Structure formats: C-alpha cells, structure tokens
Amino acid sequence: MRILCLFFIATLAPLFVNAQEIAVLEYGGGGDWYSNPTALPNLIQFCNQQINTTMERKPQTVAPGSVDIYDYPFVHMTGHGNVFFSSEEAENLRNYLLSGGFLHIDDNYGMDQYLRKELVKVFPDKELKELPGNHPLFSIAFPFPKGLPKIHEHDRGRPQAFGIEHEGRLLLLYTFESDLGDGWENPEIHNDPADVRQKALQMGANIIKYAFEN
After folding, report:
1. Is a pLDDT exceeding 90 seen at residue 48?
2. CATH number of the domain encompassing residue 8
3. Whole domain around residue 203: which residue ranges?
C-alpha cells in the first residue's frame, strides 16, 4: 500500500494542482458524511460567480482510502457523529495532503470528539493549532478581521479555525463552532438571515480560493 501511495504522489499529484474541482469525503464509522446536501452546490455557484472559479455544480464523493482522491485538489468533510479511518485510509489521506491536497473539515455539530482521535492516525506527529486572525485565509477574497464567523449556535462556544501545516503550507483546515455548511445550505432549510448566509458563503469562498492558490 505504501509503495502504491508513493507512486500516485509522484505521478498524479501534479495533475490536480491547477484543477478546480472538489469532492466530499465519504468516511466510515457511521457518521453522516452526506449531511448538508445543498451546501456545496450553493458554495460552488457562489465561488464561480464571485471569485471566478470554474467548478462543476455537483461535487463528487471520494473515499479516504481511494486513489481517486488524488484527482481533487480540495476535499470537504462534514457530519454530526462518529468518524473512523483505518490505518490504510489514514496513510492514504496523509500522503494525499503531503502531496499537495487540501482537506476542509467542517463540524456540523457532534463530530469533534471522534474526529480529533482519528486525525492522530493521519498525522501522529502534528497537532491542530488555532489559526490567528491575521492568517491570509481570512482576507484572501473577503475580509474577516475577527477570524472565523459564527453561523450557528450550538454550545455557545466561539468559532475557531484550526489547522495542520507542513513546511509552511496549510494542508488541513478544521472549522469548529461555526457550522459554515449550514450557512451554505438553501435558505429555507435553516432560515438563516441573508447576511449570515452571505458571511458563510464568503468565508467558504476564502477557503476555496486559499486552497486552490496555495
């Protein structure tokens, strides 16, 4: 498996560097990886209109252990419950990220306790660190001088953006106590005010632009 993953790093990674497509991570463990079905199509439409991306409206799904993950420069992960990566999946995710891929994890509420232990499998020698408010992620397209916006109240905690970096590159972003995905969904689903949805979409566009350009 290790040899196969290294082969794909060497041969396929350059193919997705300039691609503008994203995929949803179909992980195991029983969590609802498929939640917020209208979120990414709406974010993609917003990005195509506002930051000149050319993404297909309907994102594909990809498994963490699949070689197909190397086709996508950006992978999105969300859900409410349990998350589980096998050792092979964790290795494949690690190799994907180190080869230039980007993973955005958005806690839809309830996945935090499960996610953190699984990320140790992916990067046993790295820790999630909170991004400072002056990180380029918060200003690359739309300004967020206070950092990650609060979209939905869950435990009344402050919104936090955590990251894992390697050699100065942010390769994994974990947004917590914000629930951006709910803000990306169709307006009638959560009845969020227009300004709240706008903030969620703008922050999502920042994430997409940052991932594609760094």
Report:
1. yes
2. 3.40.50.12140
3. 2-213
- What's the whole-model pTM score? 0.90
* Overall number of domains in the chain: 1
pLDDT-derived band at 152 (thresholds 50, 70, 90) equals confident
Give the CA diameter of the chain. 50
Question: Rg of the chain's alpha carbons, rounded to an integer?
Answer: 16
Instruction: Centre a 10 Å sphere on the Cβ of residue 52 and count the other Cβ atoms it contains.
Output: 9
- Where b means 16+ CB within 10 Å and e means fewer, 100-138 reads bbbbbbbbbbebeebbeebbebbbeebebeebeeebebb
pLDDT 10s digits, 132-148? 999 999 999 999 999 99
> Cβ distance 106 to 181 under 8 Å?
yes
Tokens representing 30? 């029983």
φ, ψ at 131 (rounded to 5°) = -80, 140
Q: How far apart are CA 19 and CA 182, in angstroms?
A: 26
Six token digits for residue 23: 């995929």
* Residue 190 confidence (pLDDT): 86
Length of the chain: 214
- 7, two tokens: 């082969």
179: phi > 0 → left, psi -120 to 50 → alpha, else beta; which?
left
